[in-house]
Every structure is written in structure tokens, then in C-alpha cells.
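Record type: ASSEMBLY
Status: queued
Input:
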Amino acid sequence: METTASLSLPEPAHAHAHTSSGIENKKLIMWLFLASDCMFFGTLITTHLIYRKLYPSGATEEGILNITQTFNIELTSFSTFILLMSSFLMAIAVSAMHKGELKSFRRNVLGVIFFGFIFLGCQVFEFTEFVHGNPELGVPPMTLSNSVFGSTFFVLTGTHGTHVAIGVLWLIGLFFYSFSGRMTRDSALDVEICGLYWHFVDIVWIIIFTVVYLVEYL
Amino acid sequence: MATDYHEAVACKSQLPHIKSALGLTRPDYTTGIADWLTTVDHKKIGMLYAACALFFFLVGGIEALVIRLQLIIPNNHLISAQLYNQLFTMHGTTMIFLGVMPLSAAFFNYIMPLQIGARDVAFPRLNAFSFWVFLAGALVLNLSWFFQLAETFGWFIPVDGKTDIVPAVGWFAYSPLTSVQFSGVGTDFWLLGIQILGVASLAASFNFIVTIINMRAPGLTMMRLPLFTWMTLVTGVLIIFAFPAITIALLELMFDRFFETNFFHVEKGGQPILWQHLFWIFGHPEVYILILPGMGIISEIIPTASRKPLYGYPLIVFSGAVIGFMGFTVWSHHMFTTGLGKVATAAFSLLTMGIAVPTGVKILNWIGTLWGGRIRFSVPMVFSLGFIWMFMLGGMSGIMHSAAPADAQQQDSYFVVAHFHYVLVGGLLLSLLAGIYYWVPKVFGRMMNQKLGYWVAGMVIVGFNVTFFPMHYLGLAGMPRRTHTYWSGFGWELWNPVATVGAFVLGIGILLCFIDVVRTVIKGKPCGSDPWDARTLEWSLPSPVPAYNFAAMPVVQGRDAWWLHKHEAGEEARLTYEPIDPHGIHMPSQSWWPPFGGLGFLVFGISMCMHGAGVVFAGYGVIVGLSIVVFTILCWALEGPGGYYIKPAALHAEAGAMGETQSSSEFKG
Amino acid sequence: MHAHSLKHIKAVENRRYHTFFNLAIFLAALTGIEIVAIFLPFMRPALLVLLVGCSIIKFFGVIMWFMHLIYDRPLLLWVFITGLAIAIGTVLALMELFVQSDVDVTAHAMMEGMRIEPKAWV
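Status: finished
Output:
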């Protein structure tokens, strides 16, 4: 029939022009998901805090768990810093995609992935340390099943870690997809919603870092 | 893109085999079973939901009747106590998660996009995914019966010889009964089934909310939305904020059972009461998730049958939203007897009394709508009036529970059973049956048997009252709920057999309705597109509704747009339509990935349960299931949304670029 | 999307770059303050307020700017705030509902053979 240009299928990115609220469908559903996820993490965090309130001494089977002794606040601070900076890079990556600068996008996303891996690495290291404890310094092991604190701590931070891992996989997917030739300025929305997810994981960590780690040093 | 196809076709079966970005053929051209498996049409998905819901209503109903048979006389041993526990657990779980919620979802799917003038929901593939994941969760829960059967034949032996294979912990599964010491594989089936159903409900709700906020026809402002669409929105909001709580509670329970954590293990310092809180933080909004769609249905039928606008529309919308929000603030009234402390008990008591106010406002509005109306007692209307009456009775006993001291007497007695069945059967089920009678003519273009409909209404309402009203007496006389049997001499011998007889009348009534649905689908009397002289946009479409819904997009001129168009004087009361795209209507592509994702969840769920039962290599099944899910998501993303063009019949005829049924009066005028 | 020219988008995004950079530095500084504060011997009474305050500021910094809420339509902010409000309300209510006197900490500890160091907590 006519030329292909006039007949091209409506791309998702054009859809925002037609929505009643003026917000793109994908962006709205992502925000709804994040609002729902607030409740998800809220429930997890509250489980942790309730048991901290009920058992202030942190019960384990093998002796009193001195939580600040177990924690490695320097390492956690470092990974917190890393996650914050990855959020910055992610914001830049989204910007780059809006501008259609694919190279800059790849560079920044690679940075986010790298930082994500560092965060996950720190978490794995931290978990291993906690599980083994340090007999020389008299730090008892803390496992998933030897204390309520261990259960709530590992499940809470582990669930957050799973969110980070899913985010890293998503970003890796976007990174490789950017070489397919199908990624244009119209794909900025897809990058942006991935970014929203990543930032959300970051703010959840901001909360966890304060209420799970820092507050123990009060 | 080379994979796009730009020629418009009259029917999708004429489409050539288009390839997706993955290089696989899109199943757009399919017919028959492949078409139903891969469909993304919200109407077909709605029908699939409805079919499953009706089936599980029958399953849950049979479970209920066996329970009633067991209780018909004192000292009855028709079934064992263990089977009795399994039956009441599965009855509750099935009715709530596999009967009522999917039937509401069926109405959301089919009706809501038509009411807002949309061509489909915002994310058609996600919608299909929700259905298939729902089916996976439903299967995980109910396959436990087959595993139990296999166990009785000796084909399946769970570790430790635990014969508790069907869930038997009650629908709210209080800890510590759910810990590994006290319950078998059944709890795993329950927790994984509910977890998977939660994924389905969440995905569907995100989709519906976006659809309502973003895909309304031009002119359809929020305060012009039909009430049913409003209640869909509020229900969606409730689901997305309530389900995360149960997701986490189930996650913690799963960790307790599979990985030896201490969330609810008393001997390790865990607090079983925490489970109760987390469950009811979900469970109480869930009550409103169940009832609000029913209220939406009633709010459509009553104005239609009264031939009068809904009285106090803004107030009814507002009270719906208030009920939704307050639903999150009253969960502890399920736990008055656990000893929350005076302040908390008083606060939750007051809030619970408060939430009755917006509910009362709604009832007042419905009655106000009836006032002065030219009421037609059609079958849906009879059910709706039954809803108002029965739901009010349930509400009254609800207020009785809100007083904590009274509740201490009623807790865990048959009085509570009577209360929530008045709300959920007398209220909700009647409204869903009303919805079935009201919308089946739209879905299939055929009328259900009205004479039989009045009989069904009579049997259901009478049978229901005979069953559940005596339970108030039984409860006040001290009969505990969930009791397997009872001795004579407590004064329970009279009302138990009465309730059982009522239950069978109720059951036969519902069965007759479902049989009539099937009969109507096959050979019902054809009816026009608007048999009830209704008010909302879906009735402006031909019945059954074409795949693309609206050949031309309507421009909505007011609340009750279709009614205004038909009955109001003046040019501004007419519905107008946007010019039609001469190239055809863009349709979303079908996909194999949603059912494939559902399969992944099914494999995951069953394997987890088998892993819990100690079956060798079941752990690999878990990995396979999760891998299928991840693979599905990847392929889904890479496949691309696609789409094709379809040319409505009206375009071929070039009859003023408009479907005849859509706007005949406009062109006559 | 094509209503805005590429040039316009570039100008907007370049302006945002500076905002993002400043915000990142600010967030890092706040985190630094938090970490230092927990080891300082003084201002212990105000520490909790400081920590909670810092994380709220960080939280809103990220959602408003990195997540574009300040540039986007207000509906998105309301959607998120609704979820956040329900979550925070539930957390606070649950925290209030559980009181230490509900559990016999001493008996629990004796069962586990441990000594107890009760400490006033939040």
C-alpha cells in the first residue's frame, strides 16, 4: 500500500500521547509496583524491628550475640556508598538514553552493573563472615537458624540482595540489547523504568542501613 | 521492522504467519485450543477466569456439603476428623481464592475495559500471564487431593510417613500449627498455592489500575466512571497494598518450613502472634477485596432496573474509597481475644465501628436509588435486592463483633461462621449471581432462562437463610466452629440438620444457575445488544462483543453515557464517535509466553511441595520451574509487543465508518 | 516524544546532569555524617533523630530527583506516597502492638542458658 513510514506500528514510547493521565503505561505500572513493594519491604523490616524490640539482647543458642561486634560497619558503609553512586550512574544512563547517546548509555550502565556486583560481593562476604563468626575474638557465629536475629537479618537483607541481583540481570539484559540495533531514543522509557527499579532498591537500602545497621550503634 | 505486518484483515484467522523479533511465529492466526492458550483478548481471558471460577465454586460447594453432611447428626463419623479439617480448610481457601476472586476478575476483565471505552487492558500479555499463573496456583492447591489419593494407594509416600497431604490448617493457617512438627506436606501445598495466586492477583491488579487511569475514552473523567469500574480500581489498589503482607508472611513461613528459620518457632523465640498480625494485615483488606466488586455490580444493576441515576454518585465513590483505605486500619479486630492491650483493643474496636459508616452510606444510596424509581423486578434485580438485605444482616452481626467484650463470647463460634457467610454468601455470592444474570446476555448475546432465574433466586435466598440463620443460634449456644462432630445434649441437635437441609437447597439452586449458564452458551434465546435498557458503554456494543470492542472510539458526554444517548433530549446528550482509522484497528499480538510462564510456576510449586515431602530430585524440579519463569520473562521481553491490523465489518461495508448497532439512533436523528 | 526536539531534550538533560551530580555528592556526604556520628561520644541523645532525619532526606532526594518525581506528573508522587503511607502506618502500628512485657525474656534466656543485658531500645 503506502510507504512503510506512514504505516509503522505504534511504538510503545508513543503511547503516552494517548493515555488519559498523560503518563506512559509502563511508567505508571512501575510506580504502582514500587508503591506495592514499599509494603513488601515494610512488612519485612517490621518483622526485624519487632524481634529487636522483643529481644534487645539478640538471642543465639551459643551465647549472647553482640550485634555491633558481629557487624562490620566499615564494609557495610562502603557498600552503601557504592549503591548510592550506582544510583547516580543510573540517573546519568537514563539521561543518556533520552539524548539518544548510546555509547554514554553503555558506559554508565556498565558502571552500574559493576557497582551492583561490588555490592553483591560485599554482601556475600559479609554473610560468610557472620555465619562463621570469629572464635578468636569471641564473636559467635550467626546463622539463619541459630537465632531469631539471624533469621530476620538474613531474610531481610537477603531479599534486598535478591532485588539487587534481579536489577543487575535486568541491566545486563539492557546492556546487551543495546547492541541489537533496536535500541533507539524511543527505548528511553524502558531504560527509565529499569532505572526506577534500581533507585528503589537503593532507597530500600538507605532505610535498611539506618534501621538495621546504624541504629545498633546507638 | 521486517517482522511487522501492515495489511489489515477482516478476521485474524486470515493473517499470514508473522514472525516476532525472536524469529518465532506469532500465534495470531490460530484458532481453537491454541487460540485460547495464547489469547491476549481481555474478553476471552475473562471467560477463562469465569469458567475456572464456576468449576472451583462447584468443588468448594461439594466440600461444604460434605461438611454439612458430617454435622447433620451428633456423633456422626461419616468422615474422619483429619478429612474434616482438610475439607474446611480447602472449602475456605477454594471459595475465597479460586471461586470469588477469579469470578470478580472475570467481570473486571470482560466488563471494565468495555465500560471505559478501551480496546483492551493496558498490558494484554501480562493479563494473560495473570490468568495462567492463577491457574497454576489453583492447580498447586488442588493437586494435593490427587497426591493424597496416590498416598492411599501407596504410590506416593512422603518423608516421615506424614499423611497430612491436603492442607488442614484452616484458611488462615495459624502458627504454630503450620510448623513442620505439627503439619505435613499439606501446609506446603497451601503456602505455595497462595503465594503463586498472589503473583497472579498482583499482576492483574497493576494492569487494571493502569487501564482505568490511562485508557479511558475521551470525555470519560474519573467522576463519570461507572461504579463497577470505580470498585475495580479500589479493589486493585487494595490488592497491591494488601498482598505484599501475605507474600512476606508466606515467605517467612516457607523459610521456617524449608530452611529452619525461627520466625514462628516458639521454642527459638519466634512469635506465632506475628503470623496472626501479618495474616490479618492482608486478611482484612482481603475481605473488602472480596466484597467491593460485588458492591460495584449492585451499583450497576440497581440504577438500571430502577431506570434512575444512582443516588449520590460522588458519595458512593467516596465511601468505596474510604472503605478501601480504612480496611487497612482494622485488622486486629480478628484478634481481640489474643490480648492486645486495652488501648489497642479500644482503638481497633472504634475503627471497626467506624468502617460501618461508609458501608451504611452505600446501603442508603442504593435504597435512595430505588426510591421513586420505575422498578423492574428482573432476575438480576431480585438478586441485588437480596444482596442489600442479606448483606445488611451480615453487617449487623459484624457490628456486634466490633464490640470487643461481645466478640470475646463469639470468637471461634458458629456465630462468626454465620456472620461471614451472611457477608460473603448472602452478600457477595448473590451479587455475583446477579452479575452473571446481568452480563451473560452481553457476553454471549443470549438470554438466560428468566423463569428459572426467579426459581434460582428463590432457592438460593431461602436455602441460604435456612442454612446460616440457625448458625447464629448455634454459635450463641456455644457450638465451636471447625468442630468435627458434637455430642447430643448441648442443644445443637435441632439446628444442625436444619442447616444441612438448607445447604442442599442452596447448593441445588447454585447448580441450576451454572447449568443454565452452560445451556445458555450452547442454545440460549438470542437477545438484542441492550436487553436491560442499561446505562453504561458496554451496552452500546453488539452482543457478543467483537474482538476490537469499539469500531470507533466513543466520546463520552456524561455519566451514564449510553442512557443519556438513548433517553435524553438535546444534541449534547448524544454519544459521538472519533473518526475511525481507515487503515484498520491495531490489535495486540498473541503470545505463547504467558501460558509458558504459568507452567513454570506450576512446576516450581509442585516441586517445592515434593521437596518438602522428601521426594528425591524434587529440588531440581524447583530449579527447572524457576528457570522456565526466567526464560519466559527473557523471551517475552525480546519478542516485542508486535500487533496486527483488523478491519471492522462496518469499514468493509463503508456504512458511514460506523458499526450499525453502535450509533443507529445518531444517524437516524 | 517528538514534540520536543532533540536539542531541547539535550539542554534539559544536561541541566539535570549537574543536579544529579550535586545530589550524589550531597548523599555521599550525608552517609559520611551518619557513619561518623555513630562513633562520636557526644550528642548521643539526638543521634536517633539525626539518623532518621538523614535517611528521610536521602530517601526523598533519590525519589524526587533520581527517580524524576519532581519532573513528572504529580499523580506518580501520590501513587508512591499512598503505598509509603500505608506501609509506614502499618510498621508503626505493629511496632506499638508488640511490647517487651508480652514475652518473658528472662525465661526465654534461661531456656537458652544465656545471661541478659536488658537495654532500653527505641
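Annotation: The interface with chain B takes residues 75, 82-83, 86-87, 89-90, 94, 96-99, 102-103, 108, 111-112 of chain C (CB under 8 Å).
Annotation: The two ends of chain C are 50 Å apart (CA to CA).
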